[in-house]
Amino acid sequence: MNNTIFPCILYNGDARKSADFYCGIFNGKITVETPVVINIELFGQKIMLLNGPQQEKNASVSFMIICDTEDEIQKYWEQLKEGGGVLMELDSYPWSKKYGWVRDQYGVTWQLFLGEKASDQKLVPTLMFIHGNNGKAVEAMEFYTRIFPNSDIGNISRYKEGGETGENPENVMHAHFMVDDYSLFCMDSSSDYEFDFNEGISMVVMTDGQEETDYFWESLSSEGGSEEVCGWVKDKYGLSWQIFPKQSMQLINDSDQDKVQKVLQAIMKMKKIIIKDLEEAYNS
């Protein structure tokens, strides 16, 4: 299982509560806990929960759970919808005997799907390309698979000509792709939602050294993307990525809190993470 790429969900101080909530539903566990960062493991996959500036989460990035039985779906559904809301009713659809889309009490959306897994991942982040991005799902998959090694585009299902959805039949209804052996799904939608990609849910890339950090930083922010602060970039579609060298995480997790604070203060002044500058701060 690839744990060098994983999603990050932003919270306004309630990351620990949500960690308990998700671990309880999906039989997961907390693997790292600090006042700012909590890492959880669901189905053997890492998710980072980050306490930071409030940013409303939305369905432009959702999480698909591939379930084995209808009972499994029903169990997740009842717990996730409590205090949340239903986006698509749990029912039988042409693409699945049992499927539903739900928003939980923390604003995170989940698609529960009865069917075969496209890889060994049970939990798959799903990107929705809307507004100015509508119709660009294939282009985006090509962009991401050019950047990441060990990547390829899998099955693509398109909307039907004259279908009830009113979608362009050239657009993607559902597609699977891999970036460095990590599974993602994507889709196009012409619906006029009041949201789009934002920092509420981002993707983390743990890099090995400065050269790899530079490569992903420059590649993902290219062609109209933007360089943000503290290791964050937005790609040309507006999806947020955190590019963090593994070496920086080792410094942050040090037992000497004075050194950790110096490293964190250095990160706050950076855009792209510069490992040698963090090491200098650590040793100062």
UniProtKB/TrEMBL annotation:
Keywords: Methyltransferase, Transferase, Ubiquinone. It comes from the Bacteria. The keyword Ligase does not apply. One of its GO terms (biological process) is methylation. Pfam families: 3-dmu-9_3-mt (PF06983). The keyword Kinase does not apply. InterPro entries: Glyas_Bleomycin-R_OHBP_Dase, PhnB-like, VOC_core. This is 3-demethylubiquinone-9 3-methyltransferase. It comes from Chryseobacterium angstadtii. The lineage of its organism: Bacteria, Pseudomonadati, Bacteroidota, Flavobacteriia, Flavobacteriales.
